[in-house]
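Help wanted!
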Amino acid sequence: MKNCEYQQIDPRALSASPLSAQNPAEKKVQRPRRKWEAFPGKNRFFCDGRLILARQNGVLPLTLGLIVVTSGLFFAFDCPFLVEHLTVCIPMIGGVLFLFVVASLLRTSFTDPGILPRATADEAADIERQIDTSGSSTYRPPPRTKEILINQQVVKLKYCFTCKMFRPPRTSHCSLCDNCVERFDHHCPWVGNCVGKRNYRYFYSFIISLSFLTSFIFGCVITHITLRSQAGKGIVQAIQESPARYPLYSLCFHTYLVASNLTTNEDIKGSWSGKRGAEESGNPYTYSNIITNCCVTLCGPMPPSLIDRRGFLPPDEAIPAAAASEMELPPFTPKSDANMCTQSTKDVLERMLHSSDFHGLCPSGNPKTSPLVQEVSSAPATAEPYLSSGCSRQLARQAVVDPCPLLSPVAFSKSNRRDSLHSINPAFRLASPSPTLSRSALVLGDGPDIGFIPQH
Amino acid sequence: MRQQAAVAAKVFIQRDYSNGTMCQFQTKFPSELETKIDKQQFEETIRTLNNLYTEAEKLGSQSFVEGCLACLTAYAVFLCMETHYEKVLKRISKYIQEQNDKIYAPRGLLLTDPIERGLRVIEVTIYEDRSFSR
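Answered by r_m:
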């Protein structure tokens, strides 16, 4: 009766088999997703995560178009004449410069500028716990800043409500891209990306090569005209002359920044020029030597990208990410400015109703981190500042259309306003119902393991 | 055979910015690890990591030559060459893995490579102490 003998059932085999039956079915449904597909910032990815661009890529096609058209006109009209009368080197030099300009431009546009990945849920909870324990419970909670000493100078670190971490020094949150960027310089609409730690050198080589190219074209055109001495070609000169000035202006400005180890952000805010307060403050990051500053900025070691775009998501995060991204789409779709204003008003009114100690949360209690709000409205602790700063954002956006964006405080002022709105009202903590937070609690939580309860 | 041990707590070693924006981590010994690991051992690990990051970011002749070469080739050289920083990061990963295998895992701890947290923190996971064995 051997064939009737029963073998003891292995419980592990039992528990394993239904899973193995499920797995092939699951695998058919879910292909492994890469991290860029669930990236929370406002960026676009190409070539399966190899290239990154801001979602609002501004006028990058226009920049490319201008460069190509101007160079094309040069090669088509000036080069044949100059090759005949001078030397064949002219189109060769022009060609090399043109390729260098385009390569630098594309490199600047498609490189990760130094985006800091957002804090995981555990990190955020840990920071929140530290803030709670260090702050006093008797008076209103202090604004979310932390002071540290860098080379014997006091630097204030701000808390980023979107990324849920204290921003490292020289890091700023770009509201257009919705990312914290290290060594944030500015968001350049001409290039369609932020300029930060990782792509500043490409940006600099772009403007330096563009200056050389436009000066070269300008010189060749002048030579052409001089040789031809015909009035009809004066129009070409006028066209060629105007683009040459702007790259040269921005080159001078950025050369100054590189030599003094500053970012556009810091220069415009006057962080180290001693404008704020009476105390003397120098730049704690400078090496006090122009050559060293230039070397460090342009020839320093190339830091890696921190966002690991092409890494794979763990399978348990893939589905929640899809659901969460659907959830978050409605709040983040581009709204009209009127809607944004109404929305911010509604938020404020809701907060007023729900927060008990609103009267203590005086926006003027945080002058340093929200200077723009103070400028906007001098009214004391009422809801007025919120409304006016929300509406002033509209006006600021209209004022954004600026012929010289490299020098305009577009990027930092937007992010500053956004953060000042958050930092004014400490009641707007992690506990407030923000879509960002609930999404991150879903996406980033390895919550079940440690019993971490997503805060609502 | 068993499922992975449950996570009891996570400790985060934050960045130390006292010398600027270079990647350095605080060497202060966290109180939660007092019962788990020797203070000297832990500080030695952090100090070695800090030294490795300093080496990665050092403005030496190698990085200077790399930077100049990259500039002259319109940065095309980065498409085929691994940067000095990336090479050091690989060494750091190997070091952390070694430390985990030899020192931290036997004590129920796990160090997470900071690059996986955007070089913001060193995450130390403390696992529950399961004293039974199979």
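OP: Thanks! One thing I noticed: The first strand of chain A starts at residue 43 and ends at 46.
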